[in-house]
Amino acid sequence: MSELRRLPRRLTDLTPASHSKSRFDSLRVRLPYYIGVAILAVLALAWIDGGEEPIRPIVQNIDGAEQS
After folding, report:
1. Which residues, at least 6 apart from 14, have a Cβ–Cβ distance to it below 8 Å?
2. pTM of the full predicted structure?
3. Distance in angstroms (rounded) separating the CA atoms of residues 63 and 68
4. 40 lies in a domain?
5. Domains held by the chain: number
């Protein structure tokens, strides 16, 4: 009776490729969510850390040639 418990429940469980295919399919389903979370994280970081800085005048002495 214990041998019957070891048998696969589905016919697709017999092939090792079915496991990698199911992983690929689940990754393909979750990948857009991962990309969306990454984009939101970058936007949140840019919003918190970024922003406009006030415009300051550039004041710098320039050594020019002597006028004659």
Report:
1. 8
2. 0.46
3. 15
4. yes
5. 1
